[in-house]
Amino acid sequence: MRRILPLLLCLPLWLLGASGFAEEDAGLGAEDREAIQDVIRKQLDAFQRDDEAEAFSYAAPAIQAQFKTPAEFMRMVRSGYEAVYRPRSTRFLEAFVLNGQVMQPVEVVAPDTSVLVAFYLMERQSDGTWRISGCVLGTSEGQTA
After folding, report:
1. CA-CA distance, 115 to 22, in Å (whole number)?
2. To bridge 70 with a disulfide, which of 10, 41, 56, 126 should be the other Cys (CB 3.0-4.6 Å)?
């Protein structure tokens, strides 16, 4: 799975959001922000425990349809997203909404100590819950000491 093109498309969106050009919360309140972070934390925890079924359960329906099984989903995560599969540490940055798309950036220290930003695209379900509809990894200038 290629990550460069989505990153090139997504990173400018994050920069716009960070510089104040994002939509004003677009109805994204503290409760939503907490719920979004909770979903991401739970998926990261499931990755740590290699709980394929639980990790897959936090993916949006379109992602589940694309990968079909928890095993296929985890195979993709292990091969292309090691930074979120086995992070040394994570730190949530300020979520933002741009053109109706909720994005939750998470600073991640990868196993090799590189510092990345994982841009989680979030999708509200019809029952009001949040699911992860994508994740794009972007590099950061930093590196841990």
Report:
1. 24
2. 56
SS3 68: coil
Q: What is the rounded CA–CA span in Å between residue 124 and residue 127?
A: 8
What DSSP character marks residue 25? G
Average confidence (pLDDT) over 83-108: 94
Question: What local confidence, expressed as pLDDT, does residue 68 receive?
Answer: 97
Q: Dihedral sign, CA of 65, 71, 76, 81?
A: positive
Question: CA–CA distance from 2 to each of 21, 42, 83 (Å)?
Answer: 28, 25, 15
Q: Which of 142, 134, 132 is nearest to 110 (CA)?
A: 142
Q: Identify the structural domains of the chain with CATH numbers, from first to last.
A: 4-143 (3.10.450)
Residue-level pLDDT at 99: 84
Residues 73 and 63: beta-carbon distance below 8 Å: yes
pLDDT of residue 78: 96
In Å, what is the CA distance from 40 to each residue of 21, 54, 66, 119, 134? 25, 12, 19, 11, 11
Residue 108, both tokens: 């991640």
SS3 label, residue 83: helix
Question: Which stretch of DSSP H or E encloses residue 18?
Answer: helix 4-18
Residue 132 above 50 pLDDT? yes
